[in-house]
Design goal:
It contains no helices and 20 strands. The chain is mainly beta. It has three domains: about 90 residues, no CATH class; about 80 residues, no CATH class; about 100 residues, Immunoglobulins (Immunoglobulin-like), CATH 2.60.40. The strands form five sheets. Strands 3-4-5-6-7 form a five-stranded mixed sheet, with no helix packed on it. A hairpin with a 2-residue loop joins strand 6 and strand 7. It is elongated and about 90 Å long.
């Protein structure tokens, strides 16, 4: 138990006052013994769930009840024309912890990392306090998304979402990062058993844009394998527009009922880098369906055929 003098008039009794227990003379007329003195008009205390009232404390003061946890209640009182006005605010009470003053690495394997800010349920993959820093080794044959964030000694962390993409080949060597995948892709039918390839790519999303389309195709019901050179059906150059569209019919025709499967990828010639798209599109050849009608239409009393 501790007793503090406020304004030299009333004794203020606080129970279980911790290190945060501070009482400041609100009027500045009396000298009061303080722990870690702050500016005028502040009273800090730890009282569990209880509140207390102050009398003759002055025109303005704050009471912060941290209740032994991170939650903090702030009671503000001030006088307007002789009437005391009260206001209650809620916030977070944070204690310095130099252990948290660090950089944190969040890693996603073949996917974006989980950035949920929870050190218990979602701890960082690695952390460090100085640069440069050597990260733990990565397993081969995967693509990694690495995001570095800075946390301060109060546990607050920044909101960086810019990822460094790292591709590790089957042999453990780092591979070039390919361009982004097509953002629109379609596979449709054409007359006489052909198919039409349609896809769109926004080269402005890449610092080093792709310059060719790769279309991987199978007609035996299996899934196309981009690592199999025999599945590369189409390798055509792109234009230099901001959004590059692929719209091309196949040169081959297939029989009725044939299942055609394709994977679209973008490719950059300069460093032999390909996107990683794995979405499979499927189309079944139907020779019984009507083809595209070739004809003319005459209006204004003419004939049509």
């Amino acid at each position: 138990m501790a007793t503090y003098v406020v304004d030299g008039v009333e004794d203020l009794v606080l129970e279980d006052v911790g290190e945060a227990g501070i009482v400041k003379n609100a009027d500045g007329e009396e000298d009061v013994e303080l722990e870690d003195a702050w500016d005028l008009f502040y009273v800090w205390y730890v009282l569990g769930d209880e509140d207390f009232e102050l009398e003759d404390v002055g025109t303005t003061y704050l009471i912060l009840n941290v209740e032994g946890s991170e939650q903090m209640n702030i009671k503000e009182a001030f006088t307007i024309v002789g009437t005391i006005q009260n206001n209650m605010l809620e916030g977070q009470y944070r204690v310095e912890n130099e252990y948290l003053n660090r950089y944190e690495a969040y890693l996603g394997t073949d996917a974006w990392p989980d950035l949920t800010d929870d050190l218990v349920l979602n701890p960082p993959w690695d952390f460090f306090t100085t640069w440069p820093h050597t990260l733990p080794p990565l397993s081969p044959g995967r693509t990694y998304y690495l995001i570095i964030r800075k946390r301060d000694k109060y546990g607050l962390i920044d909101f960086n979402v810019e990822a460094l993409v790292i591709r590790i080949g089957p042999g453990g060597d780092e591979l070039p990062v390919g361009p982004v995948d097509p953002f629109i892709s379609q596979l449709g039918g054409e007359p006489v058993g052909k198919v039409r390839f349609r896809a769109s790519y926004n080269w402005m999303q890449d610092s080093l844009p792709a310059d060719r389309w790769h279309v991987y195709l199978t007609s035996d019901g299996s899934t196309p394998d981009p690592s199999n050179p025999s599945h590369l059906y189409l390798d055509v150059p792109m234009n230099t527009f901001r959004v590059e569209d692929l719209d091309q019919a196949s040169g081959d025709a297939w029989g009725h009922g044939t299942v055609i499967k394709v994977i679209y990828r973008t490719y950059r010639t300069s460093d032999d880098a390909e996107s990683l798209n794995t979405d499979v599109l499927e189309h079944t050849i139907n020779l019984d369906a009507p083809g595209i009608v070739d004809g003319e239409l005459f209006l204004g009393g003419g004939a049509d055929r």
